Amino acid sequence: MIVLGSDHGGLELKNEIKKLLEERGLPCEDLGTHNGDSVDYPDFGVAVARRVSEGSAEKGILVCGTGIGMSIVANKFPGIRAALATDVFMATMAKEHNNANILVLGGRVLDTQKAREMVTAWLDTAYAAGRHQNRLDKITQLERELKG
Ligand code: RB5
């Protein structure tokens, strides 16, 4: 299950990404926003990140105007590795090296075609593990320490 969320600044692109996931037959759930009214991005970032953090969704995609606000919010959650990407290389590396479980995009930064290519790259790239797992383990350990 892939959960999707956006604010008004990411609504249009989020809807395009939803179409892509549906075309590919991937189960997805749109947690809003559902219209162009001005909303607060943390509300939707929390909804998506909570689902991934708790394990009821495997992955999430978040879109706000720049992607910055959504990535700040999502990375507050334990176990979340939310990656803000601006091109296909970053989206690929977000999976290959960081095993990002949430991809964050900027609706006012990307055109639809580029965003589709990025989502495709993130979905289709395998996590390389190996030396990268050691690094992710350090992040997990840090989360434990900071939690006290
Ligand atoms: C909303 O105008 C805008 O601030 C938001 O979409 C996002 O870019 C925040 O990081």
UniProtKB/TrEMBL annotation:
The keyword Transport does not apply. Its EC number is 5.3.1.6. InterPro entries: RpiB, RpiB_LacA_LacB. GO terms for molecular function: ribose-5-phosphate isomerase activity. Keywords: Isomerase. It holds the Pfam family LacAB_rpiB. It comes from the Bacteria. This is Ribose 5-phosphate isomerase B. It comes from Geomonas diazotrophica. The lineage of its organism: Bacteria, Pseudomonadati, Thermodesulfobacteriota, Desulfuromonadia, Geobacterales.
